[in-house]
Amino acid sequence: MLTPADFLEATQWAAITTLALAGLSAIAFVAQWGIRFRLVGATGFMAVLTVGCLGLSFEPFTRASIPGAIPYTTVYDSGAAQVVITVPQTITEPQLEATLKQAASNLFKPGRLGPPGQIATIRARTIVHRLGGISDLVYVGQIQPIPDGQTGAAQTIRINQEQLAKLPKPKDLPAEEG
After folding, report:
1. Does 80 lie in the same domain as 144?
2. For the segment 120-160, what is each residue's pLDDT rounded down to a tens digit?
3. Rounded to whole angstroms, how far apart are CA atoms 14 and 154?
């Protein structure tokens, strides 16, 4: 997979090519070559590619992998401060915490802008099906990029224990005693 450093190197080569085409276009205009307008088009296209490669060199493509996290799907993203992910019904508390951390690592980026004073929040939800064909959205946790005063962590994770207890237990885990 390409990294931002690879795109930065490609940007350098594309910039050199763009400058060379610009010089060739200038020579073509002075010499009245028939392909001078085609060279201008190629120069413009190379300039667009150069800017695109430069933009891709700023944002990493690699996703964080937190041990214990399970796959999630982003179901709502305002592009600013609100994100909702969906997790399986059988999620456990340690898996939920790891999944929220992974989602925060992947989704909390500097480019996320929101209204002043609004804190970015990722909420995790699942769907619980009741009798009669009724389905309920159950929000089981959330994470915000503000320091947690109790634990000293860089992010505040809130897990809704009451809602998490209502979820069905995984079949492969023994029921907890107590």
Report:
1. yes
2. 889 999 988 888 888 888 899 999 888 777 777 778 889 98
3. 39
Is position 66 within any domain?
no
Instruction: Confirm whether 129 is domain-assigned.
Output: yes
For 159, phi then psi, to 5°, come to: -110, 130
For residues 53 and 10, is the Cβ–Cβ distance under 8 A? yes
CA–CA dist 86, 128 (Å, integer): 12
State the Cα–Cα distance between residues 123 and 157, nearest whole angstrom. Answer: 10
Which DSSP category does 167 fall into?
S
> Residue 21: helix, strand or coil by DSSP?
helix
Whether residues 49 and 78 share a domain: the answer is: no
Q: Are residues 44 and 89 in the same domain?
A: no
